[in-house]
């Protein structure tokens, strides 16, 4: 396939095209294979980094969370040592906190959607782009344009803009346009689209169940919007789309349908031809089981590139996967023509964001002093506060309970609900949400305490009056986050007998606050006051309490059906 490097999204000039062609022709087969790989580093150790950029000649690397100083050291060393400038990536969905511990967290995609303010989101994206660029990261694995159709999906959730395809299309395109104005690569993902299945694509090849026409009117519109906005990259997932696979190849048997990252029907037929995408395609993490349950690893590795991906994200075993790619080339699974095409697109993306020129003039390197000023910018903190303030959504309200004050409700019982092994990073919030909420109440003059279940059997548990006589208000604080390698995001109640289930709501005013998953009403349908924040931060906590106490109004508009399509969740 001949690539038009003067066409969108590359739009390269003659000098840039010359660099791409000359660089490609200078590479050995081994170094071309190296360019295919986009690996990951957690360290600034020069011996490891030398191995990646000099010995293997990788095309890019994902940066995990580091301090500003260590991140700058790592970025600068890698770019200095790399014969060809690197694509350095991070999951920049909610802000730069995911890659730099001092970076700003602006809020999840769903929080931004709940603000219902496109102009605000434009400002947020420009701020994210400014910080990302200052940190030397040039490739954002975002925006997520999956559509959160299924409330049981354990991955999409607050990482998406919600369940409305128009909102997803509009905000995804805003992210692409604003971020790429900083000479950054964005990656619309996860093609052909997550959010339909209740299963986790990290663990199994999940299914996009839309018909071909339905897909084009929903996910297809989101990808068209991103492509028209100039997206340089598409990340393709471990997701099958049977309707389009079979429309493009009617002879395909069910057992032959492959997930997006390994499907030539979806990559070449749907993404390239039907949607007209001319940019670079990168696979989602190849370590995920969604690929490996479909094909033997030895076949899967070269098949991902042969099917149409240009970059191969991560490895299960570094040396083994490199060997599998070489063997795939030798056996004919991957042709030399397809290898050259993939590497040309990788180089074209690098040329598009001016990496050769930036390395030559030194602007590719991180200026720590400048970066520190940018990521500590008061305007960015103000934007993060605005997203927190404008996104918090009052889904249900029992009349007469709000606003709170410490005279009306002096004694508060807080139930903390956390999922298994909560972590702190771009998608997670505090591990001990109950304690955090108790502390905030007490700072504001309440006498709050944390519920702790007591052991007992039938006839031996505490009497109802132990709660009703001693507390004026009950507050649930839930922190169940979506994450890979789990199959549900549902509340797990305490023993004995669901000791922390909200059963006192008839006697004591009860408020349920979800700091992450917006769908907890499915498990507490009779709760009469329910609030979603779509993520945790200090800004969220402060804004939430201002609203609880009536000092600010609730402004958020739910981007999803928080009632989960059930009649009983509407009951008051």
Protein architecture, described:
By secondary structure, the chain is an alpha/beta fold. It has two domains: 14-370, Alpha-Beta Barrel (TIM Barrel), CATH 3.20.20; 392-570, Rossmann fold. Helices cover 39% and strands 12% of the residues. It has helices at 14-26, 29-36, 46-56, 68-81, 109-115, 118-134, 165-180, 212-217, 219-228, 242-248, 264-274, 289-292, 297-307, 318-331, 336-352, 355-361, 368-375, 378-391, 433-443, 465-468, 538-548; strands spanning 37-41, 60-63, 87-90, 139-140, 185-191, 206-207, 233-236, 239-240, 280-283, 312-313, 393-396, 411-418, 447-450, 473-479, 510-514, 529-532. Helix 13 packs across helix 14. It starts with 13 loop residues before the first helix and ends in a 24-residue tail after the last helix. Mean pLDDT is 95; it is low at 422-429.
Characterize the biggest β-sheet: 8 strands, parallel
What structural category arises from helix and sheet content? Answer: alpha/beta
- The CATH class assignment of the largest domain is Alpha Beta
Helical fraction equals 25-40%
Report the portion of residues in β strands: 5-15%
* CATH homologous superfamily grouping of the largest domain: Glycoside hydrolase, family 3, N-terminal domain
Mean pLDDT: 95
| Count of folded domains | 2
Q: Tell me how many strands there are.
A: 16
The fold-level CATH name of the largest domain is TIM Barrel
